[in-house]
Fold this protein.
Amino acid sequence: TLHRAMGTRLEFSTAFHPQTDGQSERTIQYLEDILRAVVLDRSLTWESALPLVELTYNNSYHSTIKMVPFEALYGRKVRTPLYWDEIGERTIMGPEFIHRAAETVEAIRKHIRLAQERQKVYADRKRDEHEYAVGDHVFLKVSPMKGVIRFGKKGKLKPRYIGPFEILARVGNLAYRLALPPSLSGVHDVFHVSMLWRYVHNPDHVVDFGELQVERDLTYEEVPVAILDQKVHQLRNRAVSLVKVLWSRHDETEATWEKEAELWRRYPNFDTGTPVPDLQRDSDRPEFLNRRELIDEAVTALNTLKLYVGKYDKNFIQLPETDKKILPSTLQAPELEMKSLPSHLKYVYLGDDRTLPVIVSSKLKPDQEAALIDVLRNYKRAIGWTIADLRGISPSVCMHRILLEEDAKPSREAQRRLNPPMMEVVKNEIIKLLDVGVIYPISDSRWVSPTQVVPKKSGVTVVGTHEGELVPTRVQTGWRVCIDYRKLNVMTRKDHFPLPFIDQMLERLAGYSYYCFLDGYSGYFQIPIAPEDQEKTTFTCPFGTFAYRRMPFGLCNAPATFQRCMVSIFSEYVGNIIEVFMDDFSVYGASFNSGLENLALILKRCIETNLVLNWEKCHFMVEQGIVLGHIVSKRGIEVDKSKVDIITALPYPASVREVRSFLGHAGFYRRFIKDFSKVAAPLCSLLQKDVEF
């Protein structure tokens, strides 16, 4: 090999072992210092200054080898204009050259050995030998992440240890393998001896690590535990409310003063753990000293209000308190409505007693169906049967942000009146979203949008009137609670993330033997909103004022955020085993085994990112399916016959609006109609300006 021919070897460096590449790190730092000095002095770029740095380094005297690197490598001094032809210089050849080279190499080795011994003496003065045996218990040192941990300087300089952990094996001379708990399964289990500290058994002292969320780089984030004190700092033009915060894994001596507004913004779910106070008994507590006047005013106003509207108290609208919470399907199997299926589909069950149903192809062989059920059971967490199964996609994967224009002005709109049936719809929706944590009550916000209820309709169909006339309509199937974010959307900077071309996606999707058509469960509600933008989603209704933790419908940039999130999650699979269009995912395979392997990869990725699929809209291992109004199968792309029947049954358009609607429906299938532009030209001419209809 090249290394053997040159007499060299390749050394690998590992994490937490700087001894393996210390010389390289020191050389790089030295070269960087020289390079920075040359660039600043001569106003050069880093690339143009590299030859000067190389010449400087190779011709600088090194105390370790007692000569310059160029002379050590070539056996002579570098020929510069000042030293081009020294008087009396003669060329050395033959055995004398070899003898002098051997002496030089031996001298260099001797000097390096002496320098190493000298540095070792310096290092050994404060060296403490640590050696552990298999079965010993040690603490593991964890380095807090700078800028994330919220505590004072004293806390930052204080070492942190978790454990103890048992030593399973010794790896080399300076590393050990530890038995880590399942909560640290994402961290490698081999550590350098410098990160360990011997554990001396003391039954009265136990270090708790169960609640510590350690990242892959062995860092963790501090969270607030309690508020110990409160004060108001008076500035020249305003007053700032401060709170003394006790942080996790710190005692009261390390508590820090933080801005109250900033604390609640960063930790909106922070619970102080204190019960509702008794004002008469606890009015002298620190947290009430600076608010006594405000509390007195509030109590007086409340008593005055009750004098005037006491007889109307019973008519105030309140949300009912219920103990019946929606539980995840893994804890309590839900009662589901089983709809009738076409002949090529059937239900199978992933749970006991015919619970947790999914929809699969009825044409599978018994062994194929068994293999499919095994995969679905192994990745059951990727499927949701109730809204309580939504865990929320990790903010590190994607997060919705609401960026406003520079001249944006906040808008607070009043709530709108609702009739009794609509009131019941809103109440049920609010209770459901509160139970699963999608929304939370908020008392004050600069942005407030009204709530409205709109009919939930199916696709376009044709119905007959009493006079026997056929008219196109969309049948109402229920009600949907929406938030009118139009004023917020006007002030929002638009996100122009593109959607894929439907025709290109269908062409890539067609021609395969097996498909799995997947759908996200309330896809928008799985994407978190940035904490600083949650107040902008505030909405008002007769039951109070609430804000969203997850992305709601109605935001102008919500589709772009969702498509970007899905592409980010399945980035390495899109175009190879899956096609993504919003919350519709199509997994395909040329054979049953390849399709099953692809499905397992997608379900695994869903679990890793907390993406949950809708059991009712997922069809597994079918031979064909409807994708965006087209039938996709091994035969290719076909027209959905039901859509064609609806279009052919539409009445003749009688207005410009109806002409535009008809062309929109027919143009969706223009790829199947030869010379569509020529055929539709007479109708398109009716849409032109100043043309009589």
